Amino acid sequence: MHGLSDNQTGETSVFFRHCRNFDNVTDIRRGGLARMIQAMRCPLCGQRKPRRACPALGETICSVCCGTKRLVEISCPPDCPHLTTAREHPAAVVRRQQEQDFGTILPDLRELSQRQYQLFFLLQSVIARHTPDGLGGLTDLDVAEAAASVAATYETTARGVIYDHVADSLPARHLAADIKAFIGGLAEKAGPGLDREATGALRAIEQGARRTGQKSGREYLELVGRLLRQSGMLAAGATTAAETQPRTSGIVTP
């Protein structure tokens, strides 16, 4: 269209495309115009103009919802062009947050071997995907207690004593059961010795959750959740990673 910018041309095309959904002027006078205007808004927030085609939703959404809800409320496919671009060229504020988050957990990772480092993030993905029973959600203290109880059980077993350490809170016990089930399934692929490796990773998780979680009830969980989403691990899932890793490697890669 002569005299219109690219954005104006696109918006005008969207407007006329929605106009074709109405049979005549009478429809518009009877409220069709309001419905048409609403249809030109982002279906998620209902406020901003939709500009990005979302392959996960099959709809066009605004750039703000795309940026803030991807991998959180929207299950983005790995080949989404907006997701790929965001990972390859993150905004400055995102990079600063990434650096801050990683700097926070770095002290917990320094003493870990490569296998333990990989286990650390795989176990974090198990924790992030855990769904507690009841209405309450997990807290950092629950995570610390669950990791500590499983680690203590493995440490006791290594000394030749079979004793199942139990966390204090019920949410922590349920989380500990999920963690043990995951490690047990992984041990079938990785071979013997995984319990010892997992102990170090679990102690690192306990240490980080106790230290970081002093400020709020879920600060550590939120921090690790951001790191997992940025790496794509939370979207892919720990089970998928475990199943696709070659058996000869002995461990899975995040």
At a glance:
Helix content is 63%, strand content 2%. With 254 residues, the protein is mainly alpha-helical.
Could you explain the architecture of this structure?
This protein is an all-alpha fold. The protein has a two-stranded antiparallel sheet. Helix 5 packs across helix 9 and helix 6 crosses helix 9.
Would you spell out the secondary-structure blueprint of this structure?
Blueprint: H1 6-19, H2 25-39, E1 52-54, E2 59-61, H3 63-69, H4 81-88, H5 92-109, H6 114-129, H7 140-158, H8 170-190, H9 194-212, H10 219-231, H11 233-236, H12 238-244
Antiparallel strand pairs: 1-2
Helix pairs in contact: 5-9, 6-9, 6-10, 7-8, 7-9
Class based on secondary structure composition and strand pairing: mainly alpha
Radius of gyration from the CA trace? 24 Å
Number of distinct helices: 12
Distance between the termini: 49 Å
Task: Give the amount of beta strand, in percent.
Answer: under 5%
- Physical arrangement of strands within the biggest beta sheet: 1-2
> What order do the helices and strands follow?
HHEEHHHHHHHHHH
Unreliably modeled segments:
236-254
The pLDDT mean sits at 78
Number of domains: 2
> How many DSSP-defined strands?
2
Characterize the largest beta sheet: strand count, sense, and whether it forms a barrel: 2 strands, antiparallel
Q: Please bin the fraction of helical residues.
A: 55-70%
Gross morphology: elongated
What brief labels describe this structure?
2 domains, 254 residues, mainly alpha, two-stranded antiparallel sheet, single chain
